[in-house]
Structures
1.
Amino acid sequence: MDLGQETGPSPMPLWCAEDVARYLGVPVKTLYKWRLEQHGPPCLRVGKHLRYVAEDVVGWVESRKQHLS
């Protein structure tokens, strides 16, 4: 097997809390607070780290825009 060739779909990009905070324009602490309160963009745990699927974060923002309409 040649590791230089891609055989499947590209993995979805994962963002760390700092990336998401920068994208949303909020402090990282706010993301952690939202997680404890069970709202905010969905995240997953990779080992001891929180990671966010970029597409899920963008989808969450879009759903928030619909709530305001």
2.
Amino acid sequence: MALPAAEPGEPGGGQPGVGRPGDGQPGGGQSRARGLLPVPPALREVLPDGGLRRGTAVSVAGGDTGLLLALAAGVRETEGGWAAAVGLPDLGLAAAEGYGLDLRRLLVADDPGPHWAEVVSVLAGAVELVMLRPDGPVPPKLAARLAAVLRRSGCVLLVAGPWPGAALRLGVRSGRWFGLGDGYGQLAGRQVEVVAEGRGSAVRGRTARLWLPDEYGEVRPVREQPARVGLPQEQPQLVPESAEPVEPAQPRVAAVV
């Protein structure tokens, strides 16, 4: 499969509609600099480098949408801050915004079909991060070709599912929802255990207990108190999945996926 690629030194390879440095459009500014793409503070401890290494592919096992969006939310801290979603027709835009993504800087290709690789290749030269759900198993040769595109552009590829040669693999090992009683109430948050493993410094794996999201739609460690105050206090009820002791949650949630 032939993959279009950007010309060296040209964000987006001269593709129509792709911005130039400093024009406030995808692909512009110093945000393409090599290094780490930031993530929300609660996720830094589980990532070996404290962020997502630019130019790499990261696999989110099981395609957990909440974890995918939480990892992508840090793109708003970069200069430019553009992201894209490819092959995710069920992605909730309200949920994406709740986790912190700027919908004004989110490009969406709901159903690229068998051409998803070409779409990713073009977008990699224009945005900081691409969220992807392939339409089937990914051949290693195709993954290797896209890896070369990522290295050249510095874009991070977040894959909902397995990816050959992924530099990092993350997943939700256990989780439970709060807020519903016996047929009444509303979801008030989810506690999960996130695990990360991969190559190099990540090979041993790391884990963290997080609210994903908490009652305010944010991501934070389980034992850390929410930053916001002044909302009505109401004790949520556990959605039974496990008998382990858990931290109480608050009643409302901004975005649930």
